[in-house]
Amino acid sequence: MIKEIKKITNKNIDFLNLEENHLSIQLSLDGFSFCTYNKIKNVIGTFTCYEFINNTITPVKHLELVQEIFSQEELLQLKYKSVSVTHFNNLVAQVPAPFFNKNKLAQYLQYSVKVLENDYITFDKINNSDIVNVYIPFVNINNFLIETFGAFIFKHSSTVLIENLLNKYKNLDGNFCFVNVSNFTFEIVVIKNKKLELFNCFSFKTKEDFIYYILFTAEQLNLNPEEFKLILLGDIEKESELYNTLYQYVRNVEFYTLESSNKTINGIAPHSNFTLLNQF
């Protein structure tokens, strides 16, 4: 079952003339989101988010859900100047560039991911770092998108997350912990001593699970909850239980702030949907 969560349209954009528009898509097992970006006016034209109401989705069912959305959404049936896609899942591992060998991709994942013989594994080089992201994308959906749009750029969502955070925070003093919440999953990125110290992804059911994983990560990295800065992104608001629980244990908690207004649209929080809205 597909549930539409939010649909926002910028009424100042001419949707009959999309030659200079970019389409960004984010894929995940529990949802699908997309936005259009007008390169001439330098603004987001539309934002749409869907949730998949199902605890277990097979690759075949996942593709069917995406195809159903495409059949209903007129904007997804149009041609764009460029198209980019991010894959959000936990089938990913980071490898230091000096030790990376593209012929050993399965070996990098085998300790944290169950890799099947026919899995397609690929990688992204993370800009502004010496890290390579190795991951398993939703290859059947990639194939469908190739049939639909032709050429497009795809990356793991954590590549977009890490690159953008490094670009903004790498040269700043202090230790930073970023938590990007997506439904009942969150990614955690730690920049320590001006370098990427850690990336990890956790699933949680309760607010107690949520705070446990964050504090455990901080302890393992010798980060003092009284000192490091915790910056929140994604599906979390100041009025939420997650935020209130965090605030009890971590002194410096704040939401990510945008440097430019062209990466948001009225109707969604500026710190939300980070990896979708930072593809262009």
Give the helix/strand layout.
Elements: E1 2-9, E2 21-28, E3 31-38, E4 43-52, H1 59-72, E5 82-88, E6 92-96, H2 105-109, E7 122-126, E8 131-135, H3 139-149, E9 153-156, H4 157-169, E10 176-182, E11 185-192, E12 195-203, H5 207-220, E13 229-234, H6 241-249, E14 252-255, H7 274-277
Parallel strand pairs: 2-5, 5-9, 10-13, 13-14
Antiparallel strand pairs: 1-4, 2-3, 3-4, 6-8, 7-8, 10-11, 11-12
Helix pairs in contact: 5-6
Quick overview:
It comes from Lutibacter flavus. The chain is α/β, with parallel strands linked by helices.
* CATH class wording of the domain at 163-255: Alpha Beta
Return residue spans where pLDDT drops below 50 for at least 5 consecutive residues.
Answer: none
Portion of residues within helices: 25-40%
| Beta-strand segment tally | 14
Report the major sheet: 6 strands, mixed
Anisotropy-based shape:
globular
Cα Rg: 19 Å
How many helical stretches? 7
The CATH superfamily label of the domain at 163-255 reads: Protein of unknown function DUF3822, C-terminal domain
CATH architecture title of the domain at 163-255? 2-Layer Sandwich
Annotated CATH topology of the domain at 163-255: Nucleotidyltransferase, domain 5
Distance between the termini: 30 Å
Average pLDDT number: 93
Order of helices and strands: EEEEHEEHEEHEHEEEHEHEH
**SS-derived structural category:** alpha/beta
Strand fraction equals 25-35%
Give the strand order, joined by hyphens, for the main sheet.
1-4-3-2-5-9
Protein name: DUF3822 domain-containing protein
Organism: Lutibacter flavus
Pfam families: DUF3822
